[in-house]
Amino acid sequence: MGIERAWVRVLTRCIAPLVAATTMGAAQAATPVKIALTFDDLPAHSALPPGVSRIDVAGRLLAAFHDAGTGPVYGFVNGVHEEREPDSVGVLSLWRAAGHPLANHTWSHLDLNTHGLADWEADLVRNEALLQRHMAGQDWRWLRYPFLSEGETPEKHVAARKLLKAHGYRIASVTMSFGDYAWNEPHARCMVKGDAAAVASLEASYLKAAKDSLDYSRRLSATLYGRDIAYVLLMHAGAFDARVMPRLLKMYQDNGAKFVSLEEAERDKFYAADFKTQATEAPTTLENAMKAKGLPVPKLDLPFAELDRMCR
Ligand SMILES: [Zn+2]
């Protein structure tokens, strides 16, 4: 049984690219849309539905990565979760055992815009022993800013970048996001109520939001540069994310996506600012790049209000 399944997987892998190449448009097949998947808030993000553990969530995510052939996926860690939720210990080891890297999201998800730089630096450094242990000899010095807060003043923004540079970090920018985190709490509530219809509607709205954000980022990139930059997609390691992950990854692949590593995506010249200290003028998001050129920033409509009302 196990061996048969393994063979089906091998065959599927061999055949899938051929099928994809013949069914996709010629332009899409020639120039895939490069997307680096990144997952924040490991090892414990948002609410769990009844009967689902943090280990289950990680296992489902990792199985989906494997089946979709994503290659390495960075998980951004807040070490404090292991103290708050001892059941989440083991998630980081699973992630590493599956061949995926880990990086820094600060120890306690501290918001740079509402905390002093020294406190924020201490929180960043406090997370390092855990990362060193799991990533011995490998590249974990990537920082994903909690709340994507890069400092509320230009001075603090630059000071934080200098500090990160001094600690050897590069910044993992975000150029694609659909607010995936916002589906996890309503999902847990709807599962408590056993409302299967509501869960199905959550799945549909999640996949629609992901497709809308793919189109949105591509439209901005086309307007700005006349090409697709390599995108860095922000996701979260939540129970609902894990539930929908196989379908989500298929949606991206059906739309011409090729998953690449964070390192590969950040080699795109759009991200040059992520490696510099004096970067206040250089945009790190597509929206800011639009503003810098004096272009109107279109709105990406996401159903947050509706999600917040569901299964109350
Ligand atoms: Zn986060």
Automatic annotation (TrEMBL):
<dbReference type="Pfam" id="PF01522">
    <property type="entry name" value="Polysacc_deac_1"/>
</dbReference>
<dbReference type="InterPro" id="IPR002509">
    <property type="entry name" value="NODB_dom"/>
</dbReference>
<keyword id="KW-0479">Metal-binding</keyword>
<comment type="function">
    <text>Is involved in generating a small heat-stable compound (Nod), an acylated oligomer of N-acetylglucosamine, that stimulates mitosis in various plant protoplasts.</text>
</comment>
<keyword id="KW-0378">Hydrolase</keyword>
<dbReference type="InterPro" id="IPR011330">
    <property type="entry name" value="Glyco_hydro/deAcase_b/a-brl"/>
</dbReference>
<keyword id="KW-0732">Signal</keyword>
<feature type="signal peptide">
    <location>
        <begin position="1"/>
        <end position="29"/>
    </location>
</feature>
<protein>
    <recommendedName>
        <fullName>Chitooligosaccharide deacetylase</fullName>
    </recommendedName>
</protein>
<comment type="similarity">
    <text>Belongs to the polysaccharide deacetylase family.</text>
</comment>
<dbReference type="InterPro" id="IPR050248">
    <property type="entry name" value="Polysacc_deacetylase_ArnD"/>
</dbReference>
<feature type="domain" description="NodB homology">
    <location>
        <begin position="33"/>
        <end position="260"/>
    </location>
</feature>
